[in-house]
Every structure is written in structure tokens, then in C-alpha cells.
Amino acid sequence: MKSKVLSRIGIPGGEPRRLARAAAKDATDSGWKKSAILAQLEKLVVDPRAYRDDPLFGLLAKSLQTIKKARQSFQPRQKPASYHRWGDDVDAA
Questions:
Q1: Mean pLDDT of 82-87
Q2: pTM of this prediction?
């Protein structure tokens, strides 16, 4: 399964994408059609908790759920982080 397709359906790069490719390969080896695999992956992205115990897609579901928790806990700064400028004659912008 191509990265562009996995990205389009909402699977982030790195470990989740690797797991998605492995799950898609296992599903193909088990006789699943590509359209059925894509439909399953789309459902999994929406609700990974429902697929945690799935034999083919469980690892991917756990990985996506971990990422969603991390994204939900992210809090943006109220003010920009401070920084120091070194050098002379540096534009303030």
C-alpha cells in the first residue's frame, strides 16, 4: 500500500504507517481485496479503540490510539518561547 494512500486516509508517517503496510499485506495474504482493506483502514482511523483486539489491525489501532492521546494532550504556548539573538547588526525581524 502506498504512503500517499495511507496519508490520504489519515494514517500518520513513521510507526503507524509501517504497521498499516504490514496489516494490509497480512490482509491481502488472507484473501482480502484492496477496497475492503482501505475501507477497514478508514474505519480504524475514525475509531481505533474498536479495533484494538483485531488480529490483523490491532497493533495499528493501538498505535493510532496512542498518537491520538498525545495530540489531545498537547497544549500550545500562550506566549512565544523566548530566544536569544547573537551577533551585531542583526535585523530585529
A1: 78
A2: 0.70
